[in-house]
Amino acid sequence: MIRVKGHTHLYRDPTTNAIINCDDHGYSQYVKSLEIRKNQKSEIDNMKKDIDEIKSLLKILVDGNNKT
C-alpha cells in the first residue's frame, strides 16, 4: 500500500488504485455513534408508546366521567 501525501490514515492500493482509510480510532468512534443513535431512537420509540398508552387511558377516564 502506498501512503497518500498529506493524509496520515489514507493509503492507495496499487492493484486497484483505490483509496483505503485505515483510521481505526475514527471507525470505532463512528460505530459508537451509530450505537448511541440506535439507543436514542429506541428510547424515543418507547416514550411514544408510553404517551399513546397514557392518551388512551385518559380518553377512557374522560369517557367514563361523561357517562354519569
Lay out the secondary structure.
Layout: E1 2-3, E2 10-12, E3 19-21, H1 24-66
The backbone outline, from C-alpha atoms, is: rod-shaped
Helix content: 55-70%
Main sheet record: 3 strands, antiparallel
| Radius of gyration (Å) | 26 Å
Distance between the termini: 81 Å
Q: Indicate the mean pLDDT.
A: 93
Low-confidence stretches: none
The strand order across the widest sheet is 1-2-3
Q: What is the helix/strand order?
A: EEEH
The overall strand count is: 3
> What is the tally of helical segments?
1
Structural class: mainly alpha
Task: Output the keywords.
68 residues, single chain, mainly alpha, rod-shaped
Overview of this protein structure:
The protein has 68 residues and is mostly helical. The chain has a domain at 24-68. It is 63% helix and 12% strand. The protein has one helix and three strands, in the order E-E-E-H. It is rod-shaped and about 80 Å long.
Summarize the structure.
With 68 residues, this protein is mostly helical. It is built from 1 helix and 3 strands; from the N terminus they run βββα.
